[in-house]
Amino acid sequence: MSDPDNDRLQPDDNADPDIAPLQPDDNADSDIAPLQPDDKAGVRGCLRQHWQKFTPLALLAVIILLNVIILCISGVLLKATATVTCSCEETQQQSAGFTGGNDGSYIMSAFSNLSGLIKQNHQITSNLSDFVQQNGQMISNIVATLANHGSVGISTAGAVDDVYLVVQKILQIQNATSVLNSATPVSCKAIKEVLPNSPSGYYYVNGRNIYCNMEELCGSGGGWTRLAYLDMTDATVNCPSGFRLYQSGSVRACGRAASNGGSCTSVQFPSNGISYSEVCGRVTGYQFGSTDAAYYEHNGILNHNDINSYYVDGVSITRGSPRQHVWTLMAGLNEASDNYRDGRYNCPCSQGSPQNLTLKSFIGNDYFCESGNPSTNGRSLRILYTSDPLWDGEGCGSLEGNCCTSRPSLPWFNKALGTTTTDYLEMRICGDQGTYDEDVPDTEGVVTCSDETRHNLTGEDYVTFKEVEGMTELNGCQPRPVKELGPYTFSIGDTTGFSDYVKGGAAVQVKMPKTFKFKSINESLNEPEFLISDFAKFERPAQLHIGFQALHSYKSKCGCLPRPYNREDGAKFLEVVKEVNTAAVAKIDEKLMMKLSYLSRGDCSPMQAVIGSITAQEVMKACSGKFSPLVQWFYFDALECLSEEEGGDELPEAAAVPQGSRYDGQIAIFGSDYQKKLEQLKYFI
């Protein structure tokens, strides 16, 4: 186990051989004092003659005085400390024990246990039914009070209605819905109708947690059900599968996969069986390069004008299969210039644009269009125009003012379907040219390994480059962080200011210094972080963390560790465990704690070899400054070696009594009979 103060592992002479972290031991002997010279021999001789006469009386007085002092101290200690009676060969002591931190885990555990009892016990279920029938009106009053509470904040959105729905579901199961005079809501709109003051938030509807927007949107009252949501301003959010993450400064956005020609990248959002007849939403994007809105041809090619093709430089929103149009969001070339080819690449709603004459019939008027390029000479650069986000209703240039003013609902779009459906929604980001020239958006440099060679890099690695042709800025560059896109490709971030890439190049991994910060011993005891040694025992470290604190406390109280397989000591040890776990940071595994008590005096050379090797490795890390140290706590156990773990019987205490031999440590674990079998084996190693 890593010492949080020294950031390295420390040995512990009392380590349990089968469940052994590494712990510090500060119990150094400080009671041995050196002799002092004294040259006053004559005085000593005189005193010795007189002292011999009174020695018996003096000793008797000292003994009586010591007994009185011990009785007084014992009385004080018994009042001040826990009353755990110990049986040890060593001197017994009493002292205060550890206490855990404070949190609400005990309450959650209690509710979990109650839930399990209710499911398993018919009598409890029957009693609950009787309670609901007898107290229906009282519950109804509570619900009414909560429902009309007007100061519920957004941070608790959904909490009031969660209570309402839970109570209502109990009443419905008991055939008492008449108390609330309504059925269980099956949609966000139904919740809004029953409880008009409901805030936006997550609700349990039709067996699922669903986000309900209870505010007015798109000219309609609340009760909107969220089907699709992607917030790239949150640095912890990743793009949907198949999309690429583009970053420029503080802007993060998702774009289509790298392509040398026209393409779309798609993501679907299922309705989960929820019926809807109206779609309301908003999308924010950024222009990259020379986007041309919905221009009907590219280099004379007219094969991209149907709903299933890359008909737009922007975003296409459809529903179901075959695709039915919901909304299109376009990115035009310029917002303030029409002197490039008569403005044919500008938005259909832009002044002087001919695109309004060639707009696809399935789009109709169900679109937004805007440009992020402020150029006044018709030019566009292969950059991401981050200063003017698209489709937000702001920053419309002189030519495209109508694109904003004619759409008063911006940034929200709204489409009444004229029918009720459960179709999935699909969002596609499209472009009729390669991503090197236009996209919405594109700012990321992507490295592809040759000859199908895996790069074996992760998101924590850094690389530099050599022998790159064209994009020479990368050769010998400062180490750049890697974002893994696949086994053969990775991103190195924004490269829009670099020269065009031609060919070649090799990526060189660079090891970067890393600073590790550790908690103090106090903090880590109450808020531990664990390095998992066996994911099949994922819950084990938290249990052992409590157990080892209890072992230290037990030894401090009793002066020794529990005796091997002694049931009485094991029961007392459980009392100490419960004292340590007063804050109920975990539900105690009593069977595990009994084994920890039984084996605490054991000593097994293979386990010590494991601890020693880990300790040595950590020392090497500390001295060399290479490789990452263990962080905070590391517990390792091998309880599966015990016979009872394999279906055998638990050892009696008599089988683990010390015999005064060098093998007493192993006998304390496996018993004397097993040790005899080991001694009789004649394996050549």
Automatic annotation (TrEMBL):
Residues 1-35 are annotated as: Disordered. GO terms for molecular function: ubiquitin-like modifier activating enzyme activity. Pathway: Protein modification; protein ubiquitination. Keywords: Ligase, Membrane, Transmembrane, Transmembrane helix. InterPro entries: E1_4HB, E1_FCCH, E1_FCCH_sf, Ubiquitin-activating_enz, UBQ-activ_enz_E1_CS. Residues 512-581 form the Ubiquitin-activating enzyme E1 four-helix bundle domain. It comes from the Eukaryota. The chain crosses the membrane at residues 57-78. Residues 1-11 have a biased composition (Basic and acidic residues). GO terms for biological process: protein modification by small protein conjugation. Residues 443-511 form the Ubiquitin-activating enzyme E1 FCCH domain. Pfam families: E1_4HB, E1_FCCH. Belongs to the ubiquitin-activating E1 family. This is Uncharacterized protein. It comes from Amphimedon queenslandica. The lineage of its organism: Eukaryota, Metazoa, Porifera, Demospongiae, Heteroscleromorpha.
